[in-house]
């Protein structure tokens, strides 16, 4: 369950947000102001912050909200923040986004819009988490992939060449292969690398909000447009705009996307002034667009516009040379995360890793190794710890996916058992404060009597 921290000095505003977000299964915690919020963040892990920009000390400038964002940045708390403001100040919103805010919503808000923004940011956070796992393809403190296979070496060479141009690029590949990571790799090797890289998950945008999300709107442009809003094209101006899941774009909206890609021009909703879209477009899809074109579900001219250069990421099963290098790097990442230093793969485990076909690609590989790190009893990861069945066909593979929530629960129980029931010592081992581990025990409804089983 996602946890949302709502920061507002008005109890009725916080309650309204809680009621709206509870509808989508979010757990909400509340703070009356930035100081209380910072204290909560020292004790509680949250997925997203909903931040009011104006408090009792100053009700117009947004300075208190901006100061809080600066404090998050100083303390290196990388939590997505959606800011709330009742004042028509695009400048404050821009300053907030420069300090790390991911979006903003106007007060009083429309619940559908609030929920849409929160859902999109939570999904983007999940994608970012997946990309962190996929960084096994990328050495630490480097923008180079870990790749040994001829296929990946050719792909990366092509990506670097394409990055030097402003041509539109379409990245294709199965789920979990790292399409968004490759898009960022291209941006980092381009002339726009010092400008913004803005990622948009097209599949997460409601059709009714498409124009507003992409192009922005002016106050009064439609019923719920209480304030001005910046669009993604404007935010990405001068940089790179990554359009993920482009094949999910509804047919009726494809003409609008085609127009801005062809002319590099757009209008903010509610404004007659034409703006220039100085952005480099990278799109990605795991769908077979050719069949969508044949079925009339995707415009052929839009396809030609987005794939001046097409880069295909091969699935992991087609580049077995990369599996051990990726696995070793992922083992180091997850060992550090769970404080399990000195872990290595046994020879049998390495063989099992290379025999499996990885239908979920690098994402599945990361999940598999994370589970092994959590559940293994020794410093050597054995083949049995991987819970993989060797197979010659992906369809017959038997990999029992376990939710990370369940893995966290098992890890806490295992740590408490390891320290003979001493919850505080177990929390210290896991890097959790006293209050944090007790909150997780309560969250998972752990019965410590389970330790006797």
From TrEMBL:
<dbReference type="Pfam" id="PF00158">
    <property type="entry name" value="Sigma54_activat"/>
</dbReference>
<keyword id="KW-0238">DNA-binding</keyword>
<dbReference type="GO" id="GO:0043565">
    <property type="term" value="F:sequence-specific DNA binding"/>
</dbReference>
<protein>
    <submittedName>
        <fullName>Sigma-54 dependent DNA-binding response regulator, Fis family protein</fullName>
    </submittedName>
</protein>
<keyword id="KW-0067">ATP-binding</keyword>
<dbReference type="InterPro" id="IPR009057">
    <property type="entry name" value="Homeodomain-like_sf"/>
</dbReference>
<dbReference type="Pfam" id="PF02954">
    <property type="entry name" value="HTH_8"/>
</dbReference>
<dbReference type="GO" id="GO:0006355">
    <property type="term" value="P:regulation of DNA-templated transcription"/>
</dbReference>
<dbReference type="GO" id="GO:0005524">
    <property type="term" value="F:ATP binding"/>
</dbReference>
<dbReference type="InterPro" id="IPR001789">
    <property type="entry name" value="Sig_transdc_resp-reg_receiver"/>
</dbReference>
<feature type="domain" description="Sigma-54 factor interaction">
    <location>
        <begin position="145"/>
        <end position="374"/>
    </location>
</feature>
<dbReference type="InterPro" id="IPR002078">
    <property type="entry name" value="Sigma_54_int"/>
</dbReference>
<dbReference type="InterPro" id="IPR025944">
    <property type="entry name" value="Sigma_54_int_dom_CS"/>
</dbReference>
<feature type="domain" description="Response regulatory">
    <location>
        <begin position="3"/>
        <end position="122"/>
    </location>
</feature>
<dbReference type="InterPro" id="IPR011006">
    <property type="entry name" value="CheY-like_superfamily"/>
</dbReference>
<dbReference type="InterPro" id="IPR003593">
    <property type="entry name" value="AAA+_ATPase"/>
</dbReference>
<dbReference type="InterPro" id="IPR025943">
    <property type="entry name" value="Sigma_54_int_dom_ATP-bd_2"/>
</dbReference>
<feature type="modified residue" description="4-aspartylphosphate">
    <location>
        <position position="52"/>
    </location>
</feature>
<dbReference type="InterPro" id="IPR027417">
    <property type="entry name" value="P-loop_NTPase"/>
</dbReference>
<keyword id="KW-0805">Transcription regulation</keyword>
<dbReference type="Pfam" id="PF25601">
    <property type="entry name" value="AAA_lid_14"/>
</dbReference>
<dbReference type="InterPro" id="IPR002197">
    <property type="entry name" value="HTH_Fis"/>
</dbReference>
<keyword id="KW-0597">Phosphoprotein</keyword>
<keyword id="KW-0547">Nucleotide-binding</keyword>
<dbReference type="GO" id="GO:0000160">
    <property type="term" value="P:phosphorelay signal transduction system"/>
</dbReference>
<dbReference type="Pfam" id="PF00072">
    <property type="entry name" value="Response_reg"/>
</dbReference>
<dbReference type="InterPro" id="IPR058031">
    <property type="entry name" value="AAA_lid_NorR"/>
</dbReference>
<keyword id="KW-0804">Transcription</keyword>
